[in-house]
Structures are given as structure tokens and as C-alpha cells.
Design brief:
Elements (H helix, E strand, L loop, with lengths): L28 E4 L4 E3 L5 E8 L6 E7 L1 H5 L2 E4 L1 E3 L6 E8 L4 E3 L4 E9 L23
Antiparallel strand pairs: 1-9, 2-8, 3-7, 4-6, 4-9, 5-7
GO biological process, one term: proteolysis
Keywords: Aspartyl protease, Hydrolase, Protease
Pfam family, one: dUTPase
């Protein structure tokens, strides 16, 4: 089954190396799948993207699905990428009508960047830990 078209490549430069918006008015930066993968069930899978953190000093991002992916039954579970995350950004994917093959470079998600203003935080580094690494009740 056909999936998303590949993302457009742009020169790698900070803070969003290799990411581009589809138009001048786009709020999101297209995020591509980093590996070829066939998903054969409807559970949530973490698929690596082509991007690693950090996004840039003080920059965080919401990770959401592209409407074109949703239209094809490729559901992206929203996530938050913190400014101090240094690992590979994973995309949480659920396929409504499996199986589906995602190819390296397919654009299925987007990052909505923003500057986070946290009033008070604990003095610890996130590093490359994600998906619940700061604890269930923090």
C-alpha cells in the first residue's frame, strides 16, 4: 500500500538540521521516517526519525501527525520534544489497517517548534532518555 511521499531535503543547519516547512505559512516542519519498516499490527510502534536532538537552545517542539498520513490510516501519537533531549527523535505510530510499509524518508509527522518558559525545574539533565524517563508522576 502506498504511504507518504518523501520529505524535501534542505541543507543541514541548526537549530532544525535538515527540516523544512512545506510553505512559507506552514507552522510545522516535516519529519521523516529514518528506517524502512513494515508494521503488521495495530499496536503503537516507536519508529526512529531522521532527526536527533537537541533542537536548539531553549527550543522545544510538539510532534504531531501530518493530515495526509492520517488520511491514509497512519496515526501519529502526539509527543513533546524537550529542549534538552539529545537522542534520536522517535515517532509513535499506529496503523489503523495493517499491514503498512513506511520507507526511510517518508514524511508522516511534523514538529511545531516553540520556546518553553519553565518557571521552576529540577537540576538534572535529560540527555538521550525519553518516553517516561523523568518518571510517571513528575
Amino acid at each position: 500500500r502506498k504511504t507518504e511521499a518523501p520529505c524535501r531535503e534542505t541543507p543541514r543547519r541548526a537549530p532544525f538540521r535538515g527540516l523544512s516547512a512545506a510553505t512559507r505559512g506552514s507552522a510545522g516542519l516535516d519529519l521523516a521516517v529514518g528506517v524502512d519498516i513494515t508494521i503488521v499490527d495495530d499496536s503503537v510502534h516507536v519508529v526512529p526519525s531522521t532527526v536527533t536532538g537537541p533542537l536548539g537552545h531553549g527550543l522545544s517542539a510538539l510532534l504531531i501527525g501530518r493530515s495526509s498520513a492520517s488520511k491514509q490510516g497512519i496515526m501519529i501519537i502526539p509527543g513533546l520534544i524537550d529542549s534538552d533531549y539529545t537522542g534520536q527523535i522517535g515517532i509513535m505510530v499506529r496503523i489503523l489497517n495493517p499491514p503498512a510499509t513506511l520507507h526511510k524518508g517518508d514524511c508522516i509527522a511534523q514538529l511545531i517548534p516553540f520556546r518553553a518558559h519553565v518557571i521552576k525545574s529540577q537540576d538534572r539533565e535529560r540527555g538521550d532518555q525519553g518516553f517516561g524517563s523523568t518518571g510517571p508522576n513528575n
